[in-house]
Amino acid sequence: MAKKSSRKTISIREVARHAGVSVATVSRVLNDGPVHERTRRRVELAIRETGYLPDSRAADLRRGQTRKIGLVMADLGNPAYTELTRTIHDELVQQGYSLLLGCTYGREKEEVEVLKMFQRERVDGVIVSTCEGEEDPAALEICEQLERHDVAIVFNGRDANGLNAEVVSADNIGGMQQLAAYLLRCGYQRMSFIAGEPRARASRERLEGLCLGIKAAGKQVNKILGDRVLCEGRYTIENGKFLALRMLQEKKPDVLVCGNDLMAAGALMAAENLGLRVPEDVAVCGFDDIYLAELVRPQLTTLRLPVEEVARLMCQLLMAKINGKAEKGTPDQRLYRVKTQLVIRGSA
């Protein structure tokens, strides 16, 4: 039978008795209220000598806080999301918050259910890192309800859609412009682009950046890229392979620019299935620079997104909103873009 702890819980009354003051005075000291400095020092000494531990939960409840943060994640099977979740968790724990996690796995209805769960748990803030519910009226309605109840919201890589929320996003356009310039210098003339859900900010902006990069080099988009664009499904290895097979068989590009590294890994598999050599017959590029980019053969040329920086920035913005220190501004002023870096390896 486990031995019960003999450690005694010290009450606020015992602290008051030890300091020779009222319970109300101790309470004011604990809550940083108006107290004479000499009295404050006496109470603080009594707290140390008695070993009193304030109940932070009770104080949080008085302030209307639960110190819970909800994170809506798309898919933990994606190493980029796994790293993002780990960093967010570590940052929040350091701030004294607990993390509630819900994954959607590409299902819009799942996002609605996760957000409803966060409502029931009365979270102080929500980080949304999916694209599935971006245009779903039900998900938007719940986000509006959360906002009306002073729940802080930060979006990762998707539009705020009129909400008073911060948005953190990769610099998709700038990164893809850089990649396009590199590919053109290498002599590629028949680019293609495959990505997931076309409504997603990542799909839209990465395609836009590719087109802008082609134009900036003085080339015509309809000749270099043309109709070699497929945006559908999810950002997975399986979907990358499926779309790459279609693209390679129907359009014969000389380079596959993929929406992320998982899709690029699938594209490598598709090329192998068709007996094509990479990069001799067709080049392949990704986005994110997850650990998989160095494990596949040939290693992926990709755009590195500093995931830890993204996670820390989202936590910083969320804490500022919770503590009433968020900067006000237009939606454009509340959009924070994180720079990417071109990493050249063997696939292109």
Protein model, in words:
It is a single chain. The chain starts with 11 loop residues before the first helix and ends in a 5-residue tail after the last strand. It has three domains: 12-54, Orthogonal Bundle (434 Repressor (Amino-terminal Domain)), CATH 1.10.260; 68-170 and 308-338, Response regulator (Rossmann fold), CATH 3.40.50; 172-304, 3-Layer(aba) Sandwich (Rossmann fold). Helices cover 46% and strands 15% of the residues. Helix 5 (79-94) links the parallel strand 1 and strand 2 (98-103). It has 348 residues and is of the alpha/beta class. The strands form three sheets. A six-stranded parallel β-sheet has the order 2-1-3-4-5-11, with helices on both faces. Mean pLDDT is 90; it is low at 1-7. It has helices at residues 12-19, 23-30, 37-50, 56-62, 79-94, 108-120, 137-148, 172-185, 201-216, 221-224, 237-250, 261-273, 292-295, 307-322; strands at residues 68-73, 98-103, 125-129, 152-156, 166-170, 191-195, 229-231, 255-258, 283-285, 302-304, 335-338, 341-343.
Short structural description:
With 348 residues, the protein is an alpha/beta fold.
Highest-level CATH class of the largest domain: Alpha Beta
Overall domain count: 3
The CATH topology assignment of the largest domain is: Rossmann fold
Radius of gyration in whole Å, from Cα?
26 Å
Strand content: 5-15%
Residues in helices, as a percent range: 40-55%
Q: CATH homologous superfamily name of the largest domain?
A: Response regulator
Mind telling me which CATH architecture of the largest domain this is?
3-Layer(aba) Sandwich
Strand order of the largest sheet: 2-1-3-4-5-11
Uncertain residue segments:
1-7
Helix and strand element order: HHHHEHEHEHEEHEHHEHEHEHEHEE
Shape: elongated
Largest sheet: 6 strands, parallel
Rounded mean pLDDT score: 90
- In whole angstroms, the N-to-C terminal distance is 65 Å
